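lol ok so funny story. i was supposed to be doing the assay writeup but got distracted and ended up predicting the structure for this chain instead. priorities right. anyway since i did it might as well share w the group, maybe its usefull for someone
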Amino acid sequence: MDRTRETERLILRSHRAEDWADFCRCFGDAEVVRFEPYRAMSGEEARQALAARIGNDAFIALETKQDHRYIGNVYFREDEMHTVELGYVLARDAWHRGYAAEACRALIEDAFARGVHRIWSECDPQNTASWKLLERLGFVREAHLHQNVFFWKDEQGNPIWKDTYQYALLHPGEKPPVIIREAGLEELARIAALKHQIHQLHVNGRPDLFRPFSGEEAFAEYAIAKNCALLLAEINGEPVGYVLVQYVNRSANPYMNERRFVHVEEFCVEDSHHRMGIGRRLMEGLRGLARKNGYSRIELDVWGFNESARRFYEAMGMKPFRTFMELNV
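and the output, tada:
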């Protein structure tokens, strides 16, 4: 049965035998299938793969309305647990035009309307375009699996292991949205409990250096004195995370070049909301805040005891560039 769904620029339908020429062009391109578990297809391999897709409702062909050209497919397979696996492969000349997002949004909308509970996807961490698309669609990265799979072996027959990012999107009725927004320092009192949480972590980690939290007034005085900016994460109007930053502008001197950067003073996600993608959303908001204000660099400090924070920042793409050391004598 030819199940057809139209979007603004696309026709989403079943595969057909007449798709072969464009199908071969798409899946015969080594760059297109670079992250797939198969090599670029020969003409005969493409013919067999197309035949396997015809009549398989999990593979949805994408056809442009303008010139009725096959440009790739979306894999959208639903199981008995009301869960859908999502994947997509598009021809190279269809990249960077929003086609994948347009098709996926339509399929996601239809899936949730018929009661699908969860949609998930996996991708190679090196496939930046793929996981950035998932994040634009609202997916949350749930896991980074290290060297969990291999598709190929080296000349000695050893597996070439690959990492995997796992993403998922729940039915919007399952959880309220996370709102990331800029806030004025007059709202610092609203995050006093979060400040206490993150400060206590440091007190526990280095009681020789950190004093107990002295209250929201001292917190506000500190932030105002440093002329900080505040980014909030909220669910149902309640703060569940924040980033406090300072814009730093340092003039050149005989030893150092001029430096302009955003320094993260504090980064916190409420304990009960960990592993929900809120930290990643805050980091994305921070990047946008920096760019909006004309900064191209973000810096922060991590205490040696705070391994989970270090791993998170590294997962966000940050790299160490300076190390502080100590010696008690």
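Residues 120 and 168 are 4 Å apart (CA to CA). The longest helix spans residues 99-113.
back to the writeup now i swear
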